[in-house]
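Schema walk-through. Below, the input block comes first and the output block second. Nothing else is stored per chain. Lengths vary across the set, and this one has 125 residues.
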Amino acid sequence: MTEKRYTDEFVTELRTRYTEAEGYEAEQAVIKEIANETDFTVPQLRAKLVAEKVYNAKPTVPAGKRRVRKAELVTQLATLVGEPEETVETFEKANAKALEIVVGRLRAWKARAEAAEAVEAVEAQ
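--- output ---
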């Protein structure tokens, strides 16, 4: 009979530590931590967790709630800064999350500026 690759004690510890982690990032950190402590690689541990039916795959964007495409974010950016789209189209090469942050901040600043202008208009009357 061949020797078991994973001992029952190791599998129990792996399952326990993994399931106690809260959230995808914490779970991935536990896998990396255990890989550093043992001779197993991250993919080997992930495969074992899948076989044990406890592995949680990376969460995806829910159906019906797609991410805004970078091209759409660049169009919004151009509108917010008052420039032709061709001027800012190279921003499409940027990270989508970074573009979302920039567009969100610009929207907030524009909203604050418009609110301040409205207040000034009311005070001027």
